[in-house]
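Sample intake sheet
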Amino acid sequence: MTPKVIALGLWLLWPGIPCALSAERRCGWLENPTPGNWSLLDRDGTWLLSSQGGHEAEGMEAMPDMTGAGWVVTNGTSYGHGCACLTVEADPQGRRILRLLAAQALPLGRCRADRSLPPP
């Protein structure tokens, strides 16, 4: 059974509780250090989007090209980090992004100025 089916079942039994998989907007350092490995470092910690050969959030294929202006290359020609806001459905206990709904690149200065964010 998928987490969505479980959440829906719980909500149908107890409609007063919030749905466990509601969309949320998370902003911070978007990291892609190597092929297939993506994470978001925000004020709450590190959230796994995908790991090569392992977990991959639904919707990753729709991730826009983030390697334009404001992307810091740290490995090869395109792997590195940038500042972004993502709209996601997440598993807070496992710190995994289950579904990527939208992504928006932000200027690096926004993340650098945010005192709640550790450096990438």
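Comment: The beta strands are 24-34, 37-42, 45-50, 71-75, 79-91, 96-106. Helices lie at 3-13, 108-113.
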